[in-house]
Write a structure and sequence with these properties.
This protein has 18 helices and 25 strands. Strands 11, 12, 13, 14, 15, 16 and 17 form a 7-stranded mixed sheet that branches. A 6-stranded parallel sheet has the order 19-18-20-21-22-24, sandwiched between helices. A 5-stranded antiparallel sheet has the order 2-1-5-4-3, with helices on both faces. The chain is α+β, with helices and mostly antiparallel strands. The relative contact order is 0.05.
């Protein structure tokens, strides 16, 4: 039933009054509404068809780019509405004018003069006659484009959020503690086996494993009470199918925009597979540790059991070799001795490697003399080098401290491995070892050791592999030269324990240079200098160094110059005789000749004989450098008045002591056998 209003006559009089003042009202309204997004409109209805109504408006058309008068009929106004909105708005308007709805409000897109559309909100009311028929329709228009665009952007953002939430690969749960709302995405449903509807019907306490419930619930309640900001835990979860799985849960509080409340976001992953792998790994580790302990116990026991009989075999073989044997018997026993020594070396490598792998190998820290340790080690290797005709040279630089604290035994092991390999893989030429200071402080010194050879070399692609266990450059190397492939691995690990590193530079056919560093402590108490001081009587004396090896000559000459002597180096017997004669002729004879025993054109004894044949050269004393002890040559040396002979490699301090003795005594001094090396050496 349409509402009762004024009588028809009263309505007509009111309408006429409005129409009478509309011009003045329009001006005042236009002034008031200027610059705003609000307009006022009025439609005079002439019949039941609203499109025939006469339209007047204030500030409705100007904001849209039209003239102020704009459309004059509702039909013209409808033509500016978006085609998709026309029928809807007409239905809403008709329903209101018929009294079927209590009020009129509609949102419609209206075309601007430039062809684009703006969203307009229209609100209106009708003036009706006594029968309830509308004869005037009044209202306002408000531009709500900004609001509609914001709503559209918000809707799109919410849709993107819903899509992201629902399609995220991890399980997501949103909980609103205040309103008791919960949201679950697809991944969470897949993890749990439940649908969203089923999850909403369950309490969270029904899902956690009973043994983990207190742990999981305690964290959630602490987060809900704002006692913590976030937490990450792992616990067991009971799926719908009854299967127990492991999940990881990371939960955080997210504040709302107004800051009045917050909700909880949880990220959930199924970590059952990882947990299974961790358990398998734990069991495998336990088995490996048990096996390792068993291996360590076995190695500890077998080490003694193997080494004892092996040493017995070696010892008894050496004893038998000292007895009267046929040539065939002696050769067979030498083979046994060599094979036993090789086997013992392999066993030692394997046992050391096992200790290193088990982390059971530790370094000793004891006082030792560097030059003595290096000299003794190289003296033991010299026999192998000389047997192959290889020059073995060593130079410990003068500024290298001698009194150190460290594991001398393991340092010897490294040197034996590197120099031994150099000798093994070198058919001719030389092996040169250098020791110098890399860095130092008051308490420690880092030394740099280098071992250079003229052997077969190593290809670039194999230079890293040789430091790995059981690897050699190639299979032919193992067949030709033997070995386990463990030596360099053990050396590298030992160097690592000494806080150093190792590297190699090599080229096939041109030899190799292995360089490593190692750190040692210094003696806390003052120690004697590593080398004796040269006597003043050596200063200015001329020394002739005769050696066909240029490296050896250079090192010996450097030592002599450091002692303020005047060395001259030559490489053969002819040049030696020329130099000696020239010294006599110029009135500057040589006080000493250092002769290498083995040279290509003439040996040292023969050269000494030539020197002694000439009375003019009688003032030059002679010291012979030999590759091996030669007891059978002692008589010949005395005949030639050779003052001393030294075994290669010659330690620096031993050479200096010999010079003190020889040049401070009569020319007829007896032959001096060299003591064991204690410092740097040269061949």
């Amino acid at each position: 039933m349409p509402p009762k209003n004024l009588s028809v006559e009263d309505d007509l009089r009111s309408a006429q009054h409005l129409l009478g003042v509309s011009d003045g009202l329009s001006e005042r309204l236009r002034f008031a509404l200027q610059g705003s997004t609000i307009g006022v409109w009025e439609t005079q209805l002439t019949d039941e068809n609203i499109e025939n109504g006469r339209l007047s408006a204030v500030n409705v058309w100007e904001p849209l780019g039209y003239p102020a008068e704009g459309p004059r009929t509702m039909a013209d106004r409808l033509a500016l509405w978006h085609p998709d909105d026309v029928e809807r708005v007409k239905r809403v308007t008709a329903a209101y004018l018929k009294g079927e709805t209590p009020g009129f409000e509609v949102e419609v897109r209206v075309r601007q003069h430039d062809g684009t559309y703006r969203w307009i909100l229209s609100r209106g009311t009708a003036l009706r006659d006594a029968q309830g028929r509308a004869h005037h329709f009044l209202g306002v228009s408000i531009d709500i484009t900004d609001r509609k665009e914001a709503e559209t952007a918000l809707a799109r953002s919410q849709e993107r959020y819903r899509a992201t939430f629902d399609h995220a690969p991890a399980g997501l749960v949103h909980v609103d503690p205040r309103h008791g709302l919960r949201h679950f995405n697809r991944a969470y449903c897949e993890i749990t086996g439940y649908s969203v509807k089923e999850l909403l019907a369950l309490e969270p306490t029904q899902l956690a494993h009973p043994e983990d419930l207190e742990h999981a619930l305690g964290h959630f309640l602490s987060l809900s009470r704002n006692e913590i900001a976030t937490y990450s835990i792992e616990h067991r979860f009971i799926r719908k199918d009854g299967r127990t799985i492991w999940i990881s849960v990371t939960s955080s509080r997210v504040p709302t925009d107004d800051g009045a409340d917050s909700y909880i976001v949880s990220i959930v992953h199924d970590v059952s597979r990882r947990k299974q792998l961790e358990e398998e790994l734990r069991q495998a580790r336990a088995l490996a540790e048990h096996a390792n302990r068993a291996k360590d116990e076995f190695l500890a026991n077998v080490s003694h059991e193997i080494r004892t009989p092996m040493n017995a075999i070696l010892g008894m073989t050496e004893l038998v070799l000292d007895t009267h044997l046929t040539q065939a018997q002696r050769q067979s026993l030498k083979t046994v001795k060599s094979a036993t020594g090789n086997l013992l070396g392999i066993i030692n490598d394997l046992l050391d490697f096992s200790k290193i792998e088990a982390g059971k190998l530790a370094l000793d820290a004891a006082d030792f003399g560097l030059r003595s340790a290096i000299g003794d080690t190289l003296r033991a290797l010299a026999v192998r080098a000389h047997r192959k005709g290889i020059e073995l040279v060593c130079n410990v630089h003068a500024d290298v401290p001698d009194a150190l604290v460290g594991d001398a035994g393991r340092l010897r092991q490294i040197v034996i491995n590197l120099v031994g390999n150099a000798i093994k893989f070198t058919a001719q030429g030389e092996v040169v070892m250098q020791v110098e200071v890399a860095s130092e402080s008051a308490e420690q010194v880092a030394l740099r050791f280098s071992v250079r050879d003229t052997g077969i070399g190593i290809s670039t692609d194999k230079q890293t592999a040789i430091f790995r266990a059981f690897e050699q450059e190639d299979a032919s190397t193992s067949r030709k030269y033997g070995g386990t492939g463990l030596g360099l691995t053990i050396a590298a690990r030992l160097i690592g324990l000494m806080e150093g590193d190792i590297g190699v530079e090599s080229e096939p056919g041109r030899g190799s240079t292995f360089t490593f560093t190692a750190r040692f402590g210094r003696h806390s108490a003052p120690t004697d200098p590593p080398l004796p001081r040269p006597l003043p009587l050596l200063r200015g004396l001329r020394v002739l160094v005769v050696d066909d090896n240029a490296v050896n000559r250079r090192i010996v000459e450097e030592w002599l110059r450091a002692w303020r002597m005047e060395p001259t180096g030559v490489g053969d017997g002819i040049a030696a005789m020329d130099a000696l004669w020239h010294g006599v002729a110029t009135g500057r004879p040589y006080a000493l000749a250092l002769l290498d025993f083995r040279m290509p054109d003439i040996d040292g004894l023969s050269l000494a004989a030539k020197i002694r044949e000439r009375s003019e050269l009688a003032g030059s004393r002679i010291v012979l450098l030999t590759s091996a002890d030669r007891p059978g040559e002692a008589g010949r040396m005395r005949e030639l008045k050779i003052e001393a002979h030294l075994l290669k490699p010659v330690p620096q301090d031993e050479l200096l002591e010999t010079l003190h003795h020889v040049l401070g005594s009569a020319p007829t001094a007896p032959v001096v056998d060299a003591p064991s090396p204690v410092t740097s050496s040269a061949t």
